[in-house]
Amino acid sequence: MRLKVLGSGDAFGSGGRFNTCFLVEGAEASFLIDCGASAMISIRRFGVDPNRIGAIFLSHLHADHFGGVPFFILDAQYVSRRREPLVLVGPKGLMPRLMTFMEAGFPGSSTVERSFRLETIEIEPGERTPVEAVGAAVTGFLVKHPSGAPSMGLRFECEDKALAYTGDTEWVDAIVDIGRGADILLAEASYYKRKVPYHLDFSTLRDRLGLIGAKRVVLTHMSADMLSRDPKTFVGCELAHDGLAIDLG
């Protein structure tokens, strides 16, 4: 299994980075974790076949994390000529928000007859949800990041590996449960030590890494404040960048 970072940026393109988007490539199927507004650009940039992506998991419904879904669906219909089902997995309220977003950008696009089946799974916090289409199970944990729908950190079980993702959030104790003993933890680190409501800073995370006990920690969603610092500063963590590939075995 391999993790590829298709987008590691914040909402504002700091450092010229794409919006949040991670590709997990398994032996049988692949899936995305978040699909920010620039996702189709990064998919093309890194030569990813969108028809191999069986599911898109969404941590929350901000445009820099799910704004690429309408473009993905339109590409599937008109460019990639998708035939296999696509599964969207996210918080309650996902489909109404998606339909509104699609109609705002491309009127009529939410009701067009598609060449593939679009399936939706709404996950409840704390419940383990298998997604058979991609051979993975996900558990969502409520975090603190207002987005008009429940915002969640996500923990995945796939091919005997545990992959964890904080999503966007200020520190909440649920992060310990999200990342506990995970093979890899993708952690927001918008700032170095500045405390901004609803966002995580590196210094707060660093002080709690021992509680989490993840085997690898990769920092993402970094602002200019983080990107301007010497990488050696981030002891015990790795820094994501667009195009980074990590073999999970």
What does this entry show, briefly?
The chain is an alpha/beta fold.
Order of helices and strands: EEEHEHHEHEEEEEHEHHEHEE
Supply Rg: 17 Å
The residue ranges in which pLDDT falls below 50 over 5 or more consecutive positions are: none
DSSP strand count: 14
Number of domains: 1
CATH topology: Metallo-beta-lactamase, Chain A
Shape: globular
Which CATH architecture would you pick?
4-Layer Sandwich
Provide the CATH top-level class. Answer: Alpha Beta
Biggest sheet details: 7 strands, mixed
Mean pLDDT rating:
97
How far apart the termini lie comes to 6 Å
Describe the structure.
It is a single chain. The protein has 249 residues and is α/β, with parallel strands linked by helices. The protein has a single domain, classed as Ribonuclease Z/Hydroxyacylglutathione hydrolase-like (Metallo-beta-lactamase, Chain A, 4-Layer Sandwich), CATH 3.60.15.10. The protein is built from 8 helices and 14 strands. The protein has helices spanning 39-45, 63-66, 69-78, 94-105, 174-179, 202-206, 209-212, 224-227, and strands at 2-7, 21-25, 30-35, 53-57, 86-90, 118-122, 128-131, 136-142, 152-158, 161-165, 184-188, 217-220, 238-239, 245-247. The strands form 2 sheets. It has a 7-stranded mixed sheet. It has a 7-stranded mixed sheet with strand order 7-8-9-10-11-12-13. Strand 5, helix 4 (94-105) and strand 6 (118-122) form a beta-alpha-beta unit. The chain is globular and about 50 Å long.
Helices and strands in order:
Blueprint: E1 2-7, E2 21-25, E3 30-35, H1 39-45, E4 53-57, H2 63-66, H3 69-78, E5 86-90, H4 94-105, E6 118-122, E7 128-131, E8 136-142, E9 152-158, E10 161-165, H5 174-179, E11 184-188, H6 202-206, H7 209-212, E12 217-220, H8 224-227, E13 238-239, E14 245-247
Parallel strand pairs: 3-4, 4-5, 5-6, 10-11, 11-12, 12-13
Antiparallel strand pairs: 1-2, 1-14, 2-3, 7-8, 8-9, 9-10
